[in-house]
Amino acid sequence: MKLILDLSYESPSPELNGWKLRHRQAVNALPTHPVAAGIAAWTAYAKKHAKRFESDIGEDYVLGPAWARWGIALRELLNGELGHLDGGTLDHIIYTNLCSQGFDPDNWYHEENEP
């Protein structure tokens, strides 16, 4: 089964002005930021599916596209207020997971993926 990145992912980009620390603190803050909670639920769903059905979420012809649409919606929400969350890191998590499950996030609305 393919790796699903979650909020524990840490960007390999250099720490220049404290953004990594602020991002990590925002991810771990209570109450959880709604976007972070949504991404956590989205990645947990994929992991639970893989464990339960012994196959990746992207291989499921019913739940896979629904899961991908959820990820696309989360990615769009990164354009809103994120507090100290780093949008680039969150985008990488979503983008990488969609790609690893066989979905093309850059052409979602231009191909057969269209909802």
Give an account of the 3D structure.
The protein is mostly helical and 115 residues long. Helices cover 51% and strands 0% of the residues. The protein contains four helices and no strands. It is globular and about 45 Å long. 21% of the residues are buried. The model has no long low-confidence stretch (mean pLDDT 91).
Tags for this entry?
single chain, 115 residues, mainly alpha, 4 helices
Task: Give a concise summary.
The protein has 115 residues and is mostly helical.
Distance between the termini: 26 Å
User: What is the global morphology?
Assistant: globular
Number of helices: 4
Query: Mind telling me the C-alpha Rg?
Result: 14 Å
Biggest β-sheet description: none
Number of strands: 0
Reading the helices and strands in chain order gives HHHH
Please render the helix and strand layout as text.
Blueprint (H helix, E strand, L loop, with lengths): L18 H10 L5 H20 L9 H15 L9 H14 L15
Helix pairs in contact: 2-3, 3-4
